């Protein structure tokens, strides 16, 4: 189904996430059916005590299920155990402590909240202009990269999920300053940009938008990941070729994969 490309899905959830809708086994089974070469699980791990699902993630259970899936499918599919950590600066130390004692293949940092407020909700927007609402989001992403804790920036421009409904159309060119500063830091620290295809069905464009992918490449960014954010097997590898085509068009010729947080570069194009 995904011909011509090395096919990865590096943002996948299972029942090990509070909002997952499938077992790890079912996601791996589906990955093989659609021709993925590699799957990276990114279960949610949250630290905000106000979050009702803060204690949901069970590391031991997760690792056990990953090992079961590897013994069953490991000869046909590379299975990587990652984590998607909700980042807010005020609990950065807690994240660092957690990662010091829990091993993962790779660690994704995602901003869903800024200072305890969910992005682009009425309470978040109340005292901000559109520009400030996005600017503060990008600053939080910048902080996440500067923390040095993460391998991948998860779904950049995820603020659009509610932001477009709240503020109207998003124009990446209005945030060139913020994005340029962010990419400078990402490139310097070798933190990877993800193209997340969930945006295609949520807001009609990938996270980040094609203009932003182009900006990243123009600045010299080369490190790329692709993920569907699939919580159900039906979404696995969702519109992979859209992300792969953007990448190719912007000279992003390699995918970054991980094992035990060691990076590997794989050619995107398979000939
Ligand atoms: Zn997320």
Lateral strand order in the biggest sheet: 1-2-3-4-7-8-9
Q: What is the residue-mean pLDDT, rounded to a whole number?
A: 97
Distance between the termini: 15 Å
N-to-C SSE string, H for helix and E for strand: EHEHEHEEEHHEHHEHHEHEE
The CATH topology corresponds to: TIM Barrel
Q: Helix share of residues? A: 25-40%
Ligand roster: zinc ion
Q: In percent, how much strand structure appears in the residues?
A: 15-25%
Fourth-level CATH superfamily: Metal-dependent hydrolases
* General form: globular
Number of separate structural domains: 1
Main beta sheet, described?
Answer: 7 strands, parallel
CA-based gyration radius = 17 Å
State the CATH class.
Alpha Beta
- Low-confidence spans: none
Note the total helix count: 10
Count the beta strands: 11
The assigned structural class equals alpha/beta
- Write the CATH architecture name: Alpha-Beta Barrel
Task: Give keywords.
271 residues, alpha/beta, 10 helices, 11 strands
Provide an overview of this structure:
It is a single chain. The protein has 271 residues and is of the alpha/beta class. It has one domain (8-267): TIM Barrel. Helices cover 38% and strands 20% of the residues. The chain has helices at 24-33, 59-73, 92-101, 122-125, 130-146, 160-167, 176-189, 198-202, 210-218, 240-249; strands at residues 8-12, 38-45, 78-86, 106-110, 113-114, 117-118, 152-153, 192-196, 224-227, 254-259, 262-267. α1 packs parallel to α2 (59-73) and α5 packs parallel to α7 (176-189). It starts with 7 loop residues before the first strand and ends with a strand. The structure holds zinc ion (ZN). The site of zinc ion has 5 residues, from loops.
């Amino acid at each position: 189904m995904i011909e011509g490309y090395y096919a990865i899905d590096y943002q996948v959830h299972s029942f090990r996430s509070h909002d997952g809708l499938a077992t790890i086994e079912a996601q791996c089974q589906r990955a093989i059916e659609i021709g993925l070469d590699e799957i990276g699980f990114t279960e949610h791990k949250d630290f905000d005590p106000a979050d009702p699902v803060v204690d949901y993630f069970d590391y031991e259970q997760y690792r056990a299920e990953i090992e079961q899936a590897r013994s069953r499918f490991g000869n046909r599919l590379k299975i990587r155990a990652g984590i998607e950590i909700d980042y807010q600066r005020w609990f950065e130390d807690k994240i660092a402590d957690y990662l010091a004692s829990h091993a993962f293949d790779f660690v994704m940092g995602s901003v869903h909240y800024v200072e305890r407020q969910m992005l682009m909700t009425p309470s978040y927007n109340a005292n901000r202009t559109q520009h400030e609402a996005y600017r503060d989001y990008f600053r939080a992403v910048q902080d996440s990269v500067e923390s040095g804790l993460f391998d991948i920036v998860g779904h950049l421009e995820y603020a659009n999920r509610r932001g477009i409904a709240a503020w109207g159309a998003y124009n990446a060119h209005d945030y060139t300053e913020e994005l340029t500063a962010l990419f400078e830091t990402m490139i310097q620290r070798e933190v990877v940009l993800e193209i997340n295809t969930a945006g295609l069905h949520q807001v009609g464009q990938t996270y980040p938008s094609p203009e932003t992918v182009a900006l990243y490449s123009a600045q010299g960014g080369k490190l790329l990941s692709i993920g569907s954010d699939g919580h159900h097997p039906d979404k696995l590898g969702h519109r992979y070729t859209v992300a792969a085509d953007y990448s190719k068009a912007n000279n992003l010729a390699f995918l970054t994969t991980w094992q035990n947080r060691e990076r590997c570069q794989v050619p995107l194009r398979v000939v």
